[in-house]
Every structure is written in C-alpha cells, then in structure tokens.
Design goal:
The protein is about 15% helix and about 50% strand. It is of the alpha+beta class.
C-alpha cells in the first residue's frame, strides 16, 4: 500500500462521472486531487490509530488526500481532506486495513479493508453506518490512473462513479519536459 501511496503522490487532474440509479440527475465534473505521503512518525498516524483502537506500531504510514474544484486556484481547503493510515495484514503489504479520519461517503472515522489483485488493481471495501462502498483503482501508466466506485445505501439507492486521473502538470513541469525534448532533438 505504501508503494501505491508513493506512486500516487502529487497533484492529479480528475474527470469524474457520477451515475445515480434513482431520480437524481447524473453528474460530471473536474477537480484536482492532492495526494501526500505521511510517514509512520507523523502524529496523525498515532491519533487515527488510537481513535480506531488500533496499536499504532502496526501502522506503516499513510497518505493525505485533499481535493478541490479544478478551476479553484486557492490553497486546498482542509475541510475537503482525509487522512488514510495503512495497517497491513503482513509484511507483503498486499492486504490490510485503511484507517480513515473521515470517510468519503459518510464524514465519520471509518476502517476499510484493502487488497491488491494479481493484476495490480487495488480494491477498497468500506462499511459505513448506513452505506457500503467499494472503490477500485489502478495505474494505466505512472501518470494516468483510473478509479471506479460504487455505493449502496440502506434505502437501496446505488450510485457509481468513474474517474480518470492524470498527473497535473505545472508550468515548471512543462518547461522541464520541453527543455528535455529540445535537448533530445538537437542530438
């Protein structure tokens, strides 16, 4: 999991489509997702473990996730953030628990189960108080990934989300890439 978090670190441009299976209109939009790796000695790791009754020495570290609308150029709002802590089942790190200070569906602390399939796809199952969620995520390349999720509510309403995410390039990133390509062309 920590390798997945490290590979995800950075800013992502997300295009999402949300399908509701009831009378609510489907939605789509664009946003930025900020992913930062946190180390096992980060105080948030201990606080979240203690909140969930988990021994903090079993944690490997985690990641923080903040999101905002794509056109918003301000600093990300910490109210639109979550911290996930990795508590692996064993030394392989291919399955375990993700402790979240707040869930995506219900904004309460929650424990999810995760595992990686042989194909490298990450699956996260979450049981909330009144909802069930499953998210799957995989990298197509180092700079492009896909996320799909489903939510089932106690009322029976389902929703499905599809997100394509590409690593957000800053002007500095683009200038470096252009310089690299120009130097290759002149050889």
């Amino acid at each position: 999991m920590m390798d997945f978090f490290r590979k995800s670190e950075g800013v992502w441009f997300t295009q999402r489509t949300v399908h509701h299976f009831d009378a609510v209109a489907d939605q789509s939009g664009e946003s930025k997702l900020y992913v930062g790796v946190i180390t096992v000695d980060d105080p948030r790791v201990q606080a979240i473990c203690e909140q969930q009754g988990i021994d903090p020495t079993k944690a490997n570290g985690g990641a923080s996730f903040m999101w905002q609308e794509h056109e918003d150029d301000r600093e990300p709002n910490p109210d639109h953030a979550a911290v996930l802590v990795d508590v692996p089942d064993d030394e392989t790190g291919t399955s375990g628990k993700l402790l979240r200070n707040q869930g995506y569906v219900e904004r309460i602390p929650v424990v999810s189960r995760y595992w990686f399939g042989k194909d490298g796809i990450l699956t996260i199952d979450t049981e909330y108080e009144s909802n069930q969620g499953q998210e799957r995520c995989w990298f197509m390349t180092d700079d492009f990934r896909v996320r799909v999720s489903t939510v089932r509510m106690m009322s029976g309403v389902y929703l499905m989300t599809y997100c394509s995410e590409r690593r957000y390039l800053t002007d500095a990133n683009l200038a470096t890439m252009m310089q690299h390509n120009l130097s290759r062309a002149s050889v």
